[in-house]
Amino acid sequence: MRLYYAPDTCSLSPHIVLRELELEFELVKVDNRSKRTADGRDFLTINPKGYVAALELDDGEILTEGPAIVQYLADLKAESGLAPRAGTWDRVRLQEWLNFITSEIHAGSALLFNSALPDEVKSIYREKLFRRFNFLEDQLNGKNYLMGSVFSVADAYLFTVLGWCKFFAIDLQGWPVLSAYMARIHARPAVQAALRAEASD
């Protein structure tokens, strides 16, 4: 498999999952501005949407959208426990978390990257994001991970998008439960390996 990625983007999430599962894969870096891959290809021919992550399977199929990719990967090794088995209530709960992260945290944070937005508009988005952080703080209180005691693909995704707070001068220390959660995930060997690989490429 090939994972098309760019540093400091949501493609870190499937990268972490690939390493958690100890699957064989190749990393292919994408320049988000030029839409060229590190090996010289036009990324738009791989993913016409123009953004990472994209996962190229051994048979040439291309899968896009982080939540779909991480669930596909987890199902390749269902025994890993990174996603509850399809058809179970716990799997529906996982999908609930993935949708929340996509729509409220990922999309809510991504807007703050837009330098054309006036500060007063950014302030509105930041306040909305902070309300979501308050919700996460409450939900994670007394739990190690979003699904309880077991790390899941949803945690890889949430860790990834919360990592962008450093770009917006948002200090997660204001949410101590959330801050401890981030530190716990950051310490995982697969997470450390993914971060090192992306920093060195």
Order of helices and strands: EHEEEEHHHHHH
Number of helices: 7
**What would you report as the Rg, rounded to the nearest angstrom?**
17 Å
What is the count of β-strands?
Answer: 5
Q: Taking strands numbered 1, 2, ... along the chain, how are they ordered across the largest sheet?
A: 3-2-1-4-5
Low-confidence stretches: none
Q: How would a textbook summarize the main sheet?
A: 5 strands, mixed
- Whole-number mean pLDDT: 97
| First-to-last CA distance | 18 Å
What does this structure look like?
By secondary structure, the chain is α+β, with helices and mostly antiparallel strands. It is built from seven helices and five strands. It has helices spanning 12-20, 66-76, 89-110, 119-140, 153-162, 176-186, 189-200; strands at residues 2-5, 26-31, 36-37, 54-56, 62-64. The protein has a five-stranded mixed β-sheet with strand order 3-2-1-4-5, covered by helices on one side. It starts with a strand and ends with a helix. The model has no long low-confidence stretch (mean pLDDT 97).
What are the key terms here?
globular, 5 strands, 7 helices, 201 residues, alpha+beta
Give a quick precis of the structure:
The chain has 201 residues and is α+β, with helices and mostly antiparallel strands. The protein has helices at 12-20, 66-76, 89-110, 119-140, 153-162, 176-186, 189-200; strands spanning 2-5, 26-31, 36-37, 54-56, 62-64.
